Amino acid sequence: MSGPETEGYAGQDGGRPSGIDELLEHVRAGYTRVEAQEAYDAWRSGDALLVDIRYAALRERDGLIPGALVVERNELEWRLDPRGSHRLPEAAHHDLRVVVVCNEGYASSLAAESLHRLGLRRATDLVGGFQAWRAAGLPVTTAAV
């Protein structure tokens, strides 16, 4: 990674690479994360697309968020790039508000930052991930096996 978006990742201390905690702090400073209830309300009002990037074993173990679009993390950029040839129909424009959901809210932060690089400036992630969603008592369904 290089360029203005990544200034501060490495090099501040004589080129010393940053650790993941520093990287997460830097990435998260670039946008506002959302809590579970806010994500739910935005989805219900049609203002946000919930995108679950958890891998299949976690979805099978813990369940699914009804209405969330499931996109494996390794396909996220390909499926949500509005200009991409492999995009999903939901990824129709760059003004799309996307709330990325992982298991606990770490991988989703990096994923949201990656979506920002594709021009999806309204992309964000769910603080605490799926576990926070479930703990808030929001809808969860059993995954189809």
TrEMBL record:
Q: Which GO terms describe its molecular function?
A: thiosulfate-cyanide sulfurtransferase activity
Q: Name one Pfam family in it.
A: Rhodanese
Q: Which domain of life is it from?
A: Bacteria
Put simply, this protein is called Sulfurtransferase
* Organism the protein comes from: Actinospica acidiphila
Domain Rhodanese as annotated: residue spans: 44-142
Matches recorded under InterPro entries: Rhodanese-like_dom (IPR001763), Rhodanese-like_dom_sf (IPR036873)
